[in-house]
Design brief:
single chain, alpha/beta, four-stranded parallel sheet, four-stranded antiparallel sheet, disordered N terminus
């Protein structure tokens, strides 16, 4: 398995760590977020896919074609991590431990006992879903292993200690997590300082003969939540279990950012906990903010989001790689960086192309999944000097077009180059 490349502090902001889809209803496959995948490859120098057992790989091979996917991996634009690591709480008292009651939590770090075995299983299970020759399977196997990135199985020994500090201090992020759990489970709204909360560490469960490799710690909470909100002991216990897992997940996510030297996105439920830890700093570094801005620009330009799990779509990797290096991409990224301060009308003016303005007069629309591919032949011309729809432009016509509807890098990116990545 490849090691983690050196990444300096300047370009960590151009490396995104995030998943790209969700599990299907039967929990045996993922639904790939094609729109999210392409936007991240365009918005960041490197996208580190937080993979679910490498199940996204077959879908990406089908999307890009085998040759295109191999080219994408070789370009350095995509890396993958799929190691299992995260906090969990025991549903019941572990064997050998004296019976506990609601208010006692057994917390442990879940991880694979052998990361190399985990990797071998994930690669084999992922690739067997593809109908490949022996030679192609070997090529893909080697390429995938080359871009896999490891994380420290135990978080460099820091994760358990950090969660312990958070719980024993009943920190703001723990209180935010408790308030979030109360709202989600019981529709109870409460401020983080409206209730009493404390934790006591009873000690590692190995003292009662629980195997040390489980790494379980036993905490006991004290709170007045039951009396305040008329909840029974089990209801309070379950809400605090949720909060412990949420805070542990956040700490794990932050450790993954260090392991992989990348910024990470957070879900809507995680974000309040994270902002409780880092405050307004997150707003300045949020990768979600860049993606939200991208979606806003595409929405204003009339480009619908690619449906999650969409089928029969092909993306031209050669065009994608070239687009990442183009002047138009650079101009579009410059527009994106200031789009938060722009009105919808200002963005519309910035991305409107000649083709987009005239298409309704020339061709009308085509009813396809990707309506943003509906650009008239005029919109596809590389320069204004090219003949439009078979009619040659004279010098005065060209002058008017250049002055009144000048060439725009962002417009070319949005209206021509980005849509040209997709085949339906």
């Amino acid at each position: 398995m490849a090691g983690i490349p050196f990444v300096n502090e300047q370009n960590i902001m151009q490396r995104l760590l995030a998943p790209c889809g969700d599990m299907n209803s039967s929990r045996d496959d993922v639904r790939l977020d094609i729109g999210g995948l392409i936007s991240r490859l365009l918005l960041f120098d490197t996208y580190v896919l937080d993979s679910t057992r490498l199940l996204e790989i077959p879908h990406m091979v089908n999307l890009f074609g085998l040759g295109g996917f191999l080219d994408l991996l070789a370009s350095g634009a995509l890396e993958v991590t799929s190691s299992l690591r995260g906090f969990g709480v025991a549903d019941s008292t572990p064997p050998g431990v004296p019976s506990s009651h609601p208010g006692t939590h057994f917390v442990g770090l879940i991880r694979h006992s052998d990361p190399k075995i985990e990797t071998n299983i994930n690669v084999a299970e992922s690739l067997k879903r593809l109908d490949l020759t022996k030679r192609d399977r070997s090529r893909l196997d080697n390429a995938v292993r080359h871009i896999l990135r490891e994380i420290s199985p135990d978080g460099k020994g820091r994760l358990g200690k950090q969660l312990e500090r958070d719980l024993l201090r009943a920190s703001d992020e723990v209180r935010i997590a408790v308030a979030t759990a109360l709202r989600r489970r019981f529709n109870i709204e409460t401020g983080i300082n409206d209730f009493d909360l404390m934790f006591r560490l009873e000690g590692p469960t190995k003292a009662w003969g629980v195997p040390a490799e489980l790494g379980l710690e036993m905490y006991h909470h004290g709170t007045n939540l039951g009396g305040l909100y008329h909840l029974d002991l089990q209801q309070v216990h379950d809400a605090i279990d949720d909060a412990i897992i949420a805070v542990g997940s956040m700490e794990n996510r932050i450790q993954m950012m260090e392991d992989l030297q990348a910024i990470a996105g957070f879900t809507g439920e995680d974000l309040p906990i994270f902002t409780g830890k880092l405050g307004v700093l997150y707003k300045a570094v949020s990768p979600d903010r860049k993606e939200d801005s991208f979606r806003r620009v595409l929405d204003i330009a009339g480009m619908p989001v690619v449906p999650l799990g969409a089928k029969d779509i092909h993306v031209d990797v050669d065009k994608l790689i070239k687009l990442r290096q183009s002047v138009e991409h650079r101009d579009f990224m410059a527009l994106l960086s200031k789009s938060d301060a722009m009105t919808d009308k200002e963005i519309q003016d910035a991305v409107a192309s000649f083709g987009a303005r005239m298409s309704t007069l020339i061709h009308g629309s085509k009813a396809q999944v990707f309506r943003f591919l509906l650009i008239s032949a005029i919109g596809l011309i590389p320069t204004l000097e090219t003949a439009v729809a078979g009619v040659a432009l004279g010098a005065i016509d060209t002058f008017l077009l250049k002055r009144l509807i000048p060439y725009s890098g962002p417009a070319a990116f949005v209206n021509r180059q980005y849509p040209s990545l997709f085949d339906t």
